Each structure stands twice: as C-alpha cells, then as structure tokens.
Amino acid sequence: MTTATQQLKTANNIAWLVKLPSLARSFLIRFGYAATGILFPLIVLALWQLAFEKNWLPVQILPPPSLVWQTFWELIDSGDLTSNLWVSIQRIAWSVLIGGGVGLAIGFAIGLSKRAYAYLYPTFDVVSQFPVVGWIPLLMIFLGIDEALKVAAISLAVVVPVTVSTYKGIRNIPRALLEVGEVYQFTQLQRLRRVVLPAALPSIFSGIRQGVMQAWLSLVFVELLASSEGIGYLMVWGRQLMQMDIVFIGIIVIGLVGVVLDFVLRFIEARLQTWRRSAF
Predict the structure, then answer these.
(1) 114-146, pLDDT tens digit by residue?
(2) Phi then psi for 187, rounded to 5 degrees?
(3) Which CATH architecture describes the domain 65-279?
C-alpha cells in the first residue's frame, strides 16, 4: 500500500510539472492582456503631463493631472461629488425600472401575440426612431423641468432596446422547444416560465444591458441640458466657473461608473445563465 501511495504521489507530481509550463503560459497571456489595457491610459497620462509642462495649452483649458487629483479629493471631502453621483444613480435606477418594465411588457406582448404585434409594432417602430433629445421639448410641456422630466426622458432610452431584444428573443425560440411544452400539456404560465423565458433570457438580458448603458449616456446628456443636481450638472458647474479640473473629474467618473455597471451586469448574466441551464 505504501509503495502504491508513493507511486501515486510521484505520478501526481509529474502531472503537475507537465502542466506547469501551460499554466505559466496562461498566466503570462492574461498578465499581458492586463498590462496592455493599462498601457494606453498611462501613455495618455504621460502625454497630458507633458502637454502641461511644455505649456502647449493654457492651464485654464488643460489643468495638470496633479490638480485634477487634488480637486477630486476636495470634492469627495466636501460631499459634492458623492451627493451628485448618488442623485444620478437614483435616476438611473428609477429609469431602468420604469423603462425596462414597459419594454418587457411590450416585448412579450408583440412576441407572444400576433394581434398585439399587428396593433403595437408599427407605432412602436415609428416612435423608436426619435432620439431622446427629440422628446425633451414635448416632455417639458407636460412634465415641466423637474425630476419627472429627467426620469421620463431616460426611461424612453431604455424602452427601445429592451423591447426589441425581448421580441427577437421570443420570436427566435426554436419550434422544437415550443413543441415540448405542447407534448407535456403545459399551461400558458408553465409554458412561459419553463420554455419561453429560459430560451429568450440571453436576448432579454442583452437588451437590459443595452438599456442600462443607453440610460447612463442619456442621463449625462439630460443633466447637461436641464438639471440642478447630478454628475452632468457638476460638469456644467465646472465649465461655468472655468474650472476644467472639475469637468475632467466628471468625465473620468462617468467612464468608471459605466465600467462598473457593465461588470455588475456581466456577473448577473453569468448567474442567470446558470439558472437557465438548470431550468431546462
């Protein structure tokens, strides 16, 4: 038994040594991708610092990175950055909830019912061609310029991608899956929960991801136009004061929040894919 155990350990050690070069190669490849992703921002930062030192642009237009970094912590300490960012996140949450809910309802309706498709889709197709900015004058008449205007405008940006992706996801369900529900004599609710939703889930969530990203882009645009709070307003405030360091901070924060949102949505999508496999 002892000899057999030793032979097994030796075999495991040899197998590990054989795998070691491939593991090292995989690590180096991943490290190389990460380093490449960091390289470009470092180059931009170095050029930014060089432009400041060579005085290629006035300080009022291109402040040094050190000043932007200092202003960032000053805005954190004063609460201006965190409070305005929190307002923007709340607007995103309400807009995705409202716009996503409406988009899912319309998408399921026109995807599951030919009659609903005949009645709703032509109108939706025309309405979806309008950009968010085109709705703002009309929304101002009915909703004023308060919070309702911002949430409604951003919600409209969410409705279109969610509706289209939900409709396409349902329409592209293989006929064989639908026949499984017929064989097992599923009720409409069972058919929706056990067949339609799992099969269309990747497309639906893709639409939700697009909707969230569109909401974030539209949020900044709406806040730049008419707002007294939010990250877009903070950028307008910095421009009015000719403090470009505040504007640069707004740009950086918008980009970072967008990356975080995309990461969170990817994580949720992976969890939902696990549920989808177990549902089938």
Answers:
(1) 888 888 888 888 888 888 777 888 888 888 778
(2) -75, 170
(3) Orthogonal Bundle (1.10)
